[in-house]
Amino acid sequence: MSMDDAFPPFEPDGPDKYKDNQHKRLREIPLRYLVPNIVTVLAICAGLSAVRMAFEQRFEAAIGLMLVAALLDGLDGRIARLLKASSKFGAEMDSLADVVNFGCVPALILYIYVLDETKQFGWIAALIYVIAAALRLARFNITLGDHGRPKWQKAYFTGIPAPAAALLVLLPVYIGFLGLPADWITASFVSVYTIIIGFLMVSNLPVWSAKTVGGIARSAVMPMMLIVVLYVAALANFTWTTLTLSACAYLAFLPYSVQMYRKDGRKHAAEHAEQIEKTDS
To answer: What is the pLDDT of residues 36-55, one digit of tens each?
Structure first.
C-alpha cells in the first residue's frame, strides 16, 4: 500500500481547488505550508503537557507550558502571513487548538488546583467555561466572513478572546501561589468567578483588539522595547505577582474598552450623518 492510499493528500486550501486540475493533486506541497501547522501542533502539545503537569501537582510547570502554548498560538498566524502560507486548513487547525489550549487546558488545571474542592459545582463551572470557549471561537470564525460589519467595529472583539480568558480564569492559581488557601470556601468563589469569565467570553462585550494597531511612532520604539524587556524580566523573576497584576489590569481595562467602543460609535455615527447631509444638499 502506498502512502497516497494510506493517507489522504494534504490540501491546505481544500479539495475544490483541485477538482478541475486533477494533476495538481500529485504535486509537492511547499514546505512553507507545513511550518505554521507544525507550530500549531506544538502549541497543542504544550497545552496538553500542561494538564499532565497539573495532574502531577507541578503547577508552576503547568502555567509555564500554558504560556508557551499561548506564545506559539500567537506565532503560527504571523508565521503563516510572513511565509504567505495562510490556508483554510491552518485556520481550522488554529481554532481547534484554541479550544484545547484556552478552553479545556485552563479549565482542567483550575479544577485540579482548586475547583475539585466543591466537587460537582466546581466541575459544572469548568464545563461552562469550556463550552463558552468553544461557542466564542465558533462565533469568531463566523464573524470573519461577515463583510457587512462596519470597518470601525473590526477594531474590537465581541466578548473576551479565548487567550485572554485563559489568562484571567487562572487568576486564582496565581493568587494561590501568593498565599491564597485552596479550601472549600475559596473554591466556591472561584467556581462563580470561572462561570463569570465564561459568560464574558460569549457576551457582546466590546474588547479593543491590539491587532488593529498599524504601527507606533518612531519616538516610542525605544521606550516600548524597554517596557517589553522590563515585563519579561518581571515575569521571569516575580512570575505570580506579574501574572496577577496582568490579569487584574486586563479586568480593569474592560470598562475602558466599552467607553472607547461607545465613543467610536458616536464618532462614526456623526460622520455618517454628516455624509448623508452633504449628499442630500
So the answer is: 888 999 999 999 999 999 99
* Separation CA 279–CA 130 (nearest Å): 49
Closest to 25 (Cα-Cα) out of 6, 4, 45, 41: 4
Please provide residue 2's backbone torsions phi and psi, each rounded to the nearest 5 degrees.
-80, 165
CA distance 192 to 197: 9
User: DSSP class of residue 28?
Assistant: P
Structural contact between residues 192 and 133, judged by C-beta atoms closer than 8 angstroms: no
Domains with residue ranges and CATH for the chain:
10-211+219-266 (1.20.120.1760)
Give the confidence band of 26 by pLDDT, cuts at 50, 70, 90. very low
- Axis crossing angle, helix 120-144 with helix 184-202, rounded to the nearest 10: 20
- Pull the grid cell for residue 125: 463551572
Which pLDDT tens digit goes with each residue over 226-237?
999 999 999 989
